[in-house]
Amino acid sequence: MEFNWDKFLSAYQTASDEQKSFIDSPAIADCVKKLVDSDLIKPVHQQLLIVAISHYVLKSTSENEIVKILEANGVTNTLSILAKVVVCLESQNLSKGTNVGAAVLDSEIKAAEHDLASLQAVRTMTGDMRALGHADDIPVYRSLQDDILTPTPQADTPTTPRWESESTR
After folding, report:
1. How far lies 126's CA from each of 117, 119, 146, in Å?
2. CA angle 96, 102, 104 (to 5 degrees)
3. For the chain, where are the E strands, in sequence order?
4. What whole-number distance in Å separates Cα of residue 24 and Cα of residue 32?
5. Is 129 exposed, middle or buried (0-12, 13-18, 19+ CB in 10 A)?
6. Choice between 108 and 13, residue whose per-residue pLDDT is larger
């Protein structure tokens, strides 16, 4: 699985001048180098990530395809790495008009929503009772804080033993 060079060239030719100057600048390589220096990616993956970000900025390859290509080549935490590169690029103010950050954020939100949708719903007794049609049968006990905190007089102890052990005292 590799990046399509012809798609990249056609996207580059139709790109705005700002996007072309962004792709031609050393900004992407500098940000990827920072990730290599901080040991977030291996030096072996540096060139591949530069190419991936270039495709990403030009939108010549979908984000899902980029993630699959990076993962197939051994890059882990691809969405996190893409987000860190975008943050780096935006901090350099070179990615204005490309909406790279919004695209990464949208993809992370979609991935999180997909993961949440795949989780099983938490079961509760109340929910189970409603599902079984017994919602009206559930007793509700209401009390006031004063009723709980105010001491109530205790009933006198019975004069007759309630069970055998009380009679032996």
Report:
1. 22, 20, 27
2. 115
3. none
4. 15
5. middle
6. 13
pLDDT at 80: 84
What are the structure tokens assigned to 60, written together? Answer: 């010549």
CB-CB contact of 19 with 59 (8 Å) = no
The residue whose two tokens read 């900004």 is 27
Distances (CA, A) of 83 to 23, 28, 59, 156: 17, 13, 16, 72
Computed over every residue of the chain, the mean pLDDT equals 78
pTM metric for this prediction: 0.53
Q: Nearest-CA neighbor of 53 among 37, 34, 39, 38?
A: 34
- Extract the tokens encoding 96: 């204005």
The token duo for 62 is: 């979908």
Distances (CA, A) of 64 to 32, 52, 110: 20, 11, 11
CA distance 40 to 75: 10
Question: Amino acid letter at 86?
Answer: V
Chain segment 89-138, per-residue pLDDT in tens: 887 754 455 555 555 566 678 778 888 888 877 778 777 777 777 656 66
